[in-house]
Request: fold
Amino acid sequence: MASESRLIESIRKRFASLRSTPIVKDAARNDWLRVGIGDDAAVLRPAPGYECVVTTDAFLENVHFLRKVHEAVAVGYKALARATSDIAAMGARPRYFFLTLGLPESCSGKWFDQFITGMARAACEFGLVLAGGDTTKYPEVVIALTVFGEAKRGRAVLRSGAQPGDLLCVSGRLGESELGLRLILGDARNQRRWPQLVKKHFHPQPRLALGRWLASHRLATSMIDTSDGLSTDLSHICHASGVGARVIADKIPAVHLPPELHALKLHPLNLALHGGEDYELLFTVSKKFSGRLPAAIEKIPVTVIGEITRDKKVTLVGADGKPQPLRPLGWDPFRK
Amino acid sequence: MASESRLIESIRKRFASLRSTPIVKDAARNDWLRVGIGDDAAVLRPAPGYECVVTTDAFLENVHFLRKVHEAVAVGYKALARATSDIAAMGARPRYFFLTLGLPESCSGKWFDQFITGMARAACEFGLVLAGGDTTKYPEVVIALTVFGEAKRGRAVLRSGAQPGDLLCVSGRLGESELGLRLILGDARNQRRWPQLVKKHFHPQPRLALGRWLASHRLATSMIDTSDGLSTDLSHICHASGVGARVIADKIPAVHLPPELHALKLHPLNLALHGGEDYELLFTVSKKFSGRLPAAIEKIPVTVIGEITRDKKVTLVGADGKPQPLRPLGWDPFRK
Reply:
């Protein structure tokens, strides 16, 4: 069994080697990090004109992932992708992260190596440098991440800026991650049978370039990532902004179900409304700037799915044209 | 069972009410926090001339505390005190913190209230404002904290600055927390029998004022908090600074054992050398400034216990005057 300092040393080395990759190298040109791993705390000095955007996220065995189903590489990748998605949702640029890791003895060898490989791959893609952390022995794998981004002063996009009349928009396609989850929970072999359909569940892609584009063009009045499901995440925007919303069911870019899966009796609209972990961006745009909104931004399709209302209700307009209340039925770990 | 948003709301309210307490109010005068709890991420803007000091720390049930032994109030207090001690060890001032909490359903009522009461008490004493976090259901209580401090540019005290010839100093008394732990693990009733002896284990006091005094007077060349035990924490300073140390056993301010406890056959020197969780400050001072070092700083006694050597060995000089190797035998969760 490795000692704590040996594990930390191996994490440090693995991430230090990333500093030569193009995206991290580019970020390092404007380095905020005065003291990184190896002291009691890290010391960061934001560049003039910038603010720190900070988020924390837990990724826990048997709650957010299953060691039998999720390979170590995917656990490492997804843990960091989930947390970094919150940085995307602020329109910020990821810079540094802190990893707190509880690990069973049985995971400190090969499992640990693959886990770090997955996390290093994500760090490399997102431009993140490891700045510190904490490792301890624990009966299950528990991961807590703190991700640190940068935004130009006053440019971070909040949940609270939606105005009545704003267009409600979403990136990508919704319900894909939930479909992947259902497939692998139904039969583990589906992971090999339907690699394209489970991909988003294992390797979500935080919409970093899109988020930054929206922030830098000052186009989004409010924004959130769809981690808990459209219905729940939209309720967060409405609550924070003191508004309501009307969503047009037919406009929602819902997951495609191949005909072979129709027997599973899954409803694409339900998956799209309440399925979690798509990590797409849900945002609002003032109607007067709707002409500036391309159909795709940074290669990610963007769809207008409704609008913000003064009336604080959140409703879904079905094919019959009648609005029904849209209740937040997405992921809530404490709801029975 | 409360929903996640209700738990978050109750945490938010509890900590928001602290903003009117003197120490937090004082800190808020120079507020860095542009966006706090309730968005995808917090936004922080350090004041000109200041740097961010950031640390993360996990406090896990059955690893760092036992729910049967440690009352919820003490768990909340100690979790935050431990993490904040790293800010003290940098000579920085605590400002904001993020709480990631995994909680069993059975703990979401009264236990949760008391836990938050303890944490709020600590936040209030240390001047910390809650800036964000994450709550989820989990079979055991898992707590991960990120604490954010401020230091004047370039003034944070690192582990790596110790020079040969520097005096090695420690605050307070060592081994007290370990003694408390042994007492309560031996017999839970000792908690009532020896309240003074178990106090430091349940309610450690990060040496914030001392750490800031040392940083602002530029007196400490290196510093660490004694979380893992003197022998292990000293090895970290020596490793980071590329030096060794000679510790004089007789000079170590070891825990006092009342005569009634002599039957337990505990050795105060061993408790002081290898016992963890005292959260005192271990630091080095250039010999030429030794005259500026008071016997107590901010009411905390400070003791010179040895000196830094060019030779990279770490040794303990016993009563016979002979140096013996001092191995790092403090807390390491992965060592068998």
About this structure: Chain B touches chain A through 72 residues (CB under 8 Å). The longest strand of chain B covers residues 50-60. DSSP finds ten helices and 14 strands in chain B.
